[in-house]
Design goal:
globular, 4-stranded mixed beta sheet, 27 helices, 742 residues, Aquarius_N, Aquarius_b-barrel, Intron-binding protein aquarius, 43% helix, Aquarius_insert
């Protein structure tokens, strides 16, 4: 058939993305999962295949059985047996090869010389349609590696093709028009290295990741000692001295391409990139370098947004997303790799959502300040803003030493002095109401003066606003001009000793983000960057109801730093695998025998109608039958409890229930007995006002099951899983636990 255009290839990729995002559909999954089966390993290079089989020896028998079956079928068809030539096996591999060809030769159109010849990739202008195709293909691979059913066998295929190293060495990765592509490549690398056992689905601990790293280092040292005398220093070095990218590159750069291939054995000799030394070094270094753990990465990430992330259109678009292009954002699918993966996606998305809101507030405040350059060459302000005030003085107060095992400071505090003299009384009271844990933002503004109208048209939003830097901070305390403590809720100032604030100057002691401070100090020391903390001139506050993002992000980060125990019946359902009905309380392996319904039932008749398929027998605490039972009731559940399929809402009575009862009696079938114990609750106190309130709602049969499930959740899960649920409930990430945590 005809060759597809680049636009058609992009649309085809978009179709495949939607297909692999619909694995919950049985028809779709039964069709497309054939493209991600064990058979695809037949297209791996010899070295990669041997390594995967050594790491997963239990797959060897399955592989041999599959090869034997396929060979018999080929023999019946009287065809030569070649598993690697099947369409299902070559499908993803062919897509990857096509992408690499486009990335290498079509993103930058050929440049025409004076002689009429064309130089491949000689043009500096990129083909926007090819760039969109490359971005969509990165999204496609990310989706494949972020779902366990497709990741299990396709991750080695992606690693064998060395997609990430080739993208790192491509011209588009470092081009200004390839900023989104570079972010997607980094996200693909993250999921390719994700800390999970692809075949069991269990999350790897930090110790497991470290042991795997040392095993790789030991293997390359042993191979280097046997084959290459020139690498004797590498072979005898301790693992800690050669785990960085710089150390490995320095020691391996002495080898030729043939020697690198012999040492690595993870690159096929048929690969067109196999002769490039920089490519082989990149593959070697990326495979053997020590990788930053997920916990270290999340702890090194600042909680407050800075000016770079705020105006990054690929992360925080300023207009409504139309779907024409892709974004470097994680997707909230129906399936997740691990709980850490789920929390990390929510962390990133909520962080970017709050960044968008903060950016909108900044864009609203700065124009009202009317910044200009005065005669002394400093920034001054003609206007005023309710939410932003000029800073009189800013100074770092204290920088504590890092905690053991960390590089960022343990604590960084600063004093910010500003004046409220120019404000009216009601606005002044708002600034005086700042209290501990309020989040503020420090802005550095320098008016932008374009040389001409063309420069003004090409300027970015931060340039038009004159915004240079943005840093977040958290209030520790606020003092007035006389040094008196304001809004203290710690008990240092007694209520009868409170005095109104003195003067117009206010000094706020704030805690800076230690991760951001460490990054800024490193940039000053290594790159000679400007000292951010000497340029702040505006203090910005936000509405308290919209400014709780830091506490939520801290809660999610704390959850990711802890090892949360989740009940077995919830684990697979939460991650999007298994049968959802397995989490129903009637299917639990350790179902409770007796459940106290307390005041759920209004009377005995209400209880009978809630269980129409059973003969309800009331007994007292002594075991004797009770003729006139009164709530509360305890139910002794049978081993196989039937559920009503015709529940009605409200107080509507079911006529079919009575009809069904008549039919059951007519046919002579005996109903199973449901033993109900009526008991007298303990008296809380002799006074009427101490009596607890009672339920007045006539719950339907379906609603009655909720307390059963609630009881099972509260009493059969561990303490840690319940705490985990409470945290997720407060975050709004898992509303299922909202009932359990009330």
């Amino acid at each position: 058939g005809r060759t597809l255009t680049i636009t058609e290839k992009t649309n085809y990729l978009l179709f495949m993305i939607n297909v692999f995002q619909s694995l919950e559909d049985d028809i779709v999954s039964n069709t497309v999962l054939k493209l991600a089966s064990l058979q695809v390993w037949s297209c791996l290079s010899h070295g990669r295949f041997q390594m995967e089989m050594c790491l997963n020896p239990n797959l060897l028998k399955k592989w041999q059985k599959m090869v034997k079956k396929e060979s018999k079928e080929a023999e019946k068809r009287r065809e030569p047996f070649d598993l690697s030539s099947k369409l299902e096996v070559r499908f993803v591999k062919n897509l990857i090869e096509e992408f690499l060809e486009i990335l290498d030769s079509q993103v930058f159109p050929p440049k025409q010389t004076d002689d009429g010849d064309s130089i491949p990739g000689g043009s500096e202008q990129v083909d926007s349609e090819c760039v969109l195709y490359c971005e969509r293909f990165m999204e496609f691979l990310i989706d494949l590696l972020s779902q366990l059913p497709t990741r299990r066998f396709l991750r080695p295929v992606v690693a064998d093709a060395a997609v990430v190293p080739k993208c790192h060495l491509s011209a588009l990765y470092n081009h200004t028009d390839g900023w989104l592509f570079a972010q997607l490549v980094d996200m693909l690398q993250f999921y390719e290295r994700f800390e999970i056992n692809d075949h069991t689905g269990t999350q790897l601990s930090d110790d497991d990741v470290l042991v795997a790293h040392y095993s790789r280092i030991q293997a390359v040292q042993l191979s280097a000692f046997k084959k290459f005398p020139k690498l004797k220093e590498l072979a005898l070095a301790n693992a800690g001295s050669i785990h960085t990218r710089a150390d490995l590159t320095k020691k391996l750069s002495t080898l030729s391409p043939e020697e690198l291939q012999d040492l690595l054995k993870l690159v096929s000799c048929k690969d067109p990139w196999a002769e490039r030394v920089d490519f082989l070094l990149e593959v070697m270094v990326s495979f053997f370098e020590k990788r930053q753990s997920q916990k270290e990465a999340i702890n090194a990430l600042p909680l407050y947004p800075d000016e770079q992330i705020m105006w990054d259109e690929s992360l925080v678009p300023s207009i409504n997303y139309s779907g024409e292009g892709c974004l470097a954002l994680p997707k909230l699918n129906l399936q997740f790799l691990t709980f850490h993966d789920y929390l990390l996606r929510n962390f990133n998305l909520f962080r970017l959502e709050s960044t968008y809101e903060i950016r909108e507030d900044i864009q609203e405040v700065i124009p009202h300040l009317h910044a200009y350059i005065n005669r002394e060459g400093e920034t001054a302000f003609r206007g005023w803003s309710r939410m932003g005030v000029p800073i009189k003085e800013f100074k770092i107060k204290e920088v504590k030493q890092p905690n053991m095992g960390e590089v960022k400071p343990a604590f960084v505090t600063a004093d910010v002095t500003f004046s409220v003299s120019s404000y009216e009384a009601h606005i002044r009271s708002e600034w005086n109401s700042l209290k501990e844990h309020d989040v503020l933002f420090l802005l550095s503004i320098r008016p932008f003066e374009p040389l001409n109208s063309e420069g003004a048209a090409k300027s970015t939003v931060p340039e038009r606003l004159g915004l240079q830097f943005v840093r977040g901070c958290e209030v520790i305390e606020i003092r007035d001009e006389g040094g008196g403590l304001m809004n203290d809720f710690t008990g240092r100032i007694k209520r009868d000793e409170w005095k109104p604030p003195k003067g117009d100057l206010r000094t706020v002691t704030v805690a800076l983000d230690t991760a951001q401070y460490y990054m800024d100090v490193n940039a000053i020391a290594e790159k000679g960057a400007e000292d951010v903390y000497g340029t702040f001139n505006i203090l910005l506050r936000r509405k308290p109801k919209e400014n709780n993002f830091k506490a939520i992000l801290e809660s999610i980060r704390d959850l990711m730093n802890e090892s949360c125990t989740v009940p077995d019946w919830l684990h697979n359902i939460f991650l999007g695998y298994g049968n959802p009905s397995a989490a129903h309380w009637t299917n639990m392996p350790d179902l409770l025998e007796t459940v106290d319904f307390k005041d759920t039932f209004l009377n005995a008749d209400h209880l009978r109608r809630s269980f129409p398929d059973y003969e309800v027998c009331f007994i007292g605490p002594d075991g004797n039958k009770v003729s006139h039972p009164e709530p509360p009731f305890r139910l002794k559940l049978p081993k196989a409890l039937k559920t009503s399929t015709h529940a009605l809402s409200g107080n509507t009575e079911s006529v079919s229930d009575a009809q069904n009862d008549v039919n059951m009696v007519d046919t002579g079938c005996e109903l199973e007995k449901l033993i109900v114990e009526a008991y007298v609750p303990p008296d809380p106190a002799p006074y009427p006002q101490d009596q607890p309130g009672k339920n007045s709602v006539r719950f339907t049969p379906t609603q009655v099951q909720n307390p059963l499930f609630l009881s099972y959740t509260l009493f059969s899960t561990t303490q840690y899983s319940f705490i985990f649920g409470m945290n997720l409930c407060h975050l709004g990430c898992f509303p299922f636990f909202s009932v359990c945590c009330c």
